[in-house]
Specification:
The complex is a heterodimer of chains A (about 160) and B (about 160). Chain A has five helices and four strands. Chain A is an alpha/beta fold and about 160 residues long. Chain A has a four-stranded parallel beta sheet with strand order 1-2-3-4. In chain A, strand 1, helix 2 (about 35-40) and strand 2 (about 65-70) form a beta-alpha-beta unit. In chain A, helix 1 runs antiparallel to helix 5 (about 130-145) and helix 2 (about 35-40) packs across helix 5. The longest helix of chain A has 16 residues, at about 130-145. Chain A starts with 10 loop residues before the first helix and ends in a 17-residue tail after the last helix. Chain B is built from three helices and seven strands; from the N terminus they run H-E-E-H-E-E-E-E-H-E. Chain B has a domain at about 1-95: NADH:ubiquinone oxidoreductase Nqo5 subunit (Beta Polymerase, domain 2), CATH 3.30.460.80. The interface between A and B is medium-sized, with 23 and 21 residues.
Chain lengths: ~160, ~160
């Protein structure tokens, strides 16, 4: 008779470990940072190594919103709606200087950082950021996901909704 | 030389002419725009309407220059027209009857500078959004004034 083998862990750690290696990004690409996004997600740098390679082309199936590029005021309702359509749990990465802070645009048309309208989990500065920085950001986001609370059982208090 | 012919044949349709980097520049008043452009198109073959935009000189009277560019595809020549309009009545005639592309270009100049194009009945915003107040490319528009449509979040905290 085989010995019963079992393993103990904290539930949040287990769920966090699972979630951090199955990030489905939704690339909201509006500007030149998109070229850098293509570079980082294809073979040379390869975000697939971090479980974050397969972009979903609908926000309803994704859990990481990558805001890649300049967001204008005219576009703000669109990105707000995309964010609202994503299911919990969800995270947001501001990719590049424009999504982080408006970049060098300080005028009538550009939103001064996407965090004015949606909560951002990780910022990647740079114009455009180096692929290494993006990979570093994905790894930091994975650390953050791994150390978060993950209420999935019915009696657990849910996380407060980020607005 | 086509530029010579234009300055000789059309000399009652513009006020001043000069050369700018090899391109002919004509300065004229708003009421001469339509007759001049009609003749440029029909007699001199300026068949492509490249652009209409404006320049704001806040200290000057009249305040605005409306600048047109045309291109002649069989002679490979460009021409520039400059029309001065005052702030109180920034009106020039529309060119939609001659060039279809004028519709969009005039809409853009209208929203950015507040120049009105008499006869263009569709001057809705094209790059800006409905509800935008003012004309952002005028020099007296504050450089960092924004008019957001989405309400900002209550407190902007980093990373939370």
């Amino acid at each position: 008779m085989a010995m019963m083998e079992f393993l103990t862990t904290r539930k949040d750690e287990l769920v966090g470990w699972v979630r951090k290696f199955s990030i489905f990004p939704y690339p909201f690409v509006t500007a030149c940072c998109g070229m850098e996004f293509m570079a980082v997600s294809s073979t040379l740098y390869d975000t697939d190594r971090f479980g974050a390679a397969l972009p979903r082309f609908t926000p309803r199936q994704s859990d990481l919103l990558m805001v890649v590029g300049t967001i204008t005021h005219k576009e703000a309702p669109v990105i707000k709606r995309v964010y609202d359509q994503m299911c919990e749990p969800k995270w947001v990465m501001a990719f590049g200087a424009c999504a982080t802070s408006g970049g060098f645009y300080r005028n009538y048309s550009v939103l001064q950082g996407v965090d004015k309208i949606i909560p951002v989990d990780i910022y990647v500065p740079g114009c455009p950021p180096r692929p290494e920085m993006v990979i570093d950001a994905i790894m930091k986001l994975q650390d953050k996901i791994a150390s978060e609370r993950h209420p999935i059982l019915p009696f657990e208090e849910p996380n407060p909704v980020k607005v | 030389m086509i530029y010579q012919k234009i300055t000789n044949n059309l000399k009652d349709l513009f006020d001043r002419s000069h050369d700018s980097h090899g391109m002919l520049v004509l300065e004229l008043s708003p009421e001469k725009v339509l007759p001049l452009v009609t003749r440029l198109k029909e007699e001199f073959g300026f068949d492509l309407f490249l652009d209409v935009t404006a320049v704001d000189y806040p200290e000057r009277e009249p305040r605005f220059d409306v600048v047109y560019h045309f291109y002649s595809s069989n002679q490979n020549k460009r021409i520039r027209l400059k029309v001065q309009v005052p702030e109180t009545e920034p009106v020039v005639p529309t060119l939609t009857g001659l060039y279809g592309s004028a519709r969009y270009l005039e809409r853009e100049t209208h929203e950015m500078y507040g120049i009105r194009f008499n006869g263009n009945d569709d001057l809705r915003p094209i790059l800006l959004y409905e509800g935008f107040v003012g004309h952002p490319l005028r020099k007296d528009y504050p450089i960092d004034m924004e008019q957001p449509i989405v309400e900002y979040r209550k407190q902007v905290e980093s990373g939370i």
